[in-house]
Write a structure and sequence with these properties.
Blueprint lengths: L11 E3 L2 E3 L6 E5 L6 E6 L3 H20 L2 H17 L1 H12 L3 H21 L6 E3 L7 E8 L3 E4 L7 H13 L3 E4 L6 H12 L7 E4 L3 H10 L5 E5 L2 H12 L4 E5 L4 E5 L5 H13 L9 E7 L3 H14 L18 H16 L3 E4 L14 E4 L16 E7 L2 H8 L7 E5 L3 H10 L4 E4 L18 E2 L4 H6 L2 E8 L2
Parallel strand pairs: 7-8, 7-10, 8-9, 10-11, 12-13, 12-17, 13-16, 15-16, 17-18
Antiparallel strand pairs: 1-2, 3-4, 5-6, 6-20, 11-19, 14-15
Helix pairs in contact: 2-4, 2-5, 2-6, 3-4, 3-6, 4-5, 9-10
Amino acid sequence: MPAHNYAETIELYIGGEWIGPDSRENSPLVDPGSGRTLASIPHATTEDLDRAVATATDAFLIWKDMPPIARAKIMEAAADLIEARADAIAEVLTLENGKPLAEARAEVIFSAEATRWYAEEGKRTYGRMVPARIPGARQMVLKEPVGPTAAFAAWNFPASNVIRKISAALGAGCSLILKAAEETPGTAVAFTRAFEDAGLPAGVLNLVFGVPDDISKHLLAAPEIKKVSLTGSTRVGKLLQARAAETLKRTTMELGGHSPVIVYGDADVDHAVGTLAAAKFRNAGQVCTSPTRFFIHSSIYEEFCQKMADAANAVVIGHGMDDGTQMGPMIAPRRVDAMRDLVEDAVEKGARLMAGGTALELQGWYFAPTVLADVPSTAKIMSEEPFGPIASAVPFDTFDEVIKKANALPYGLASFVFTRDGGLAQKTELALDAGLVGVNHTAVSTPETPFGGVNESGFGSESGIEGLEAYLRTKFISELF
């Protein structure tokens, strides 16, 4: 594969100023598909973070007082720029994340759509009038932006994870300090440039990088920060929640999952396999809503497992910039090691390896699409989120049995059901302990619908009106003259 140029300069953005790597600690940005170093990432200093807090605090007073229609025009202009630059941004995203270029471009277009949606929805932060008990009194409920916010985005979706936080905060009238992932910084930089070029006032959006624990500890200790949003692991979510509690900051936590799939005996097996294979191996399985625990009715179990294995073996693996690539690399060597460990543990405990199961001898960090059958409940992969291209299948016979298995873990993000029976689908939807349920498909994320989990998958929602509400606070006013 010819080397592709990484067409982004990684810089911090604080108070409307771009800040390069000079006189700061740096870390390398590496292409996971080749192991090639792409750029250097500057780490924010303590002084940088203090300045970001100060400038976000000052800019908030300007941004919140702008009419929503004026804020919307800036956001819509940014969306237009993101869309116009989609091809270039997608190449940056693919080189730093590894996913195929077509997936990257679709994610960038999603980001433009989400920005437009929040630009419009920000015009509708309605309050209400409440009839008063006192004659002559007027009672009003107002919605106000909560204040300067801090957001932490994960590397697996460098565009959509970032834009959900930017567009919801800005649409509500909040300023934002974004800590994007060091594995995938360039997409966040490109989006920030689009908002700057669209005329966003200096300080409303700030972008920093650095050691995650150091950044979060400093920002969450600042009383000026009123809201925290995280996309990340459950472990990190618990840590940030504890830190946010010290100053009673509002939080939105989009955390890990371990999505169950229930395929009933009446399901269209070919449709289920095709749909689930595409979802399972998308982004090399590095998706929080990726189907992971496959509960298949015993009447179709062997057929399903064999067809799933055939689908896994047919996946075209390669660098995300190569034509025809369907699945790219893992983000780092540690993830390949984690996949190897999960497969070895499952096989040692009795699982059948039907496809894959090995790292691939390619330049970069690749693991073969993998299907395991007859996976015992004691295998680590049945309780630990794999976050990789491994499907673990188990047979079931009864409704009560499969619901108990599906709800057995503390996670509750996405879940999926395949059946031709509408009544059975509805019964299953209501029984599943999850924030998202997809029936006969896996597309559970759009700009206009809420996205979030329950239990140890977090709380609060991004996207939809619920995502905007997360950045608003309520004020009640009672007047009597």
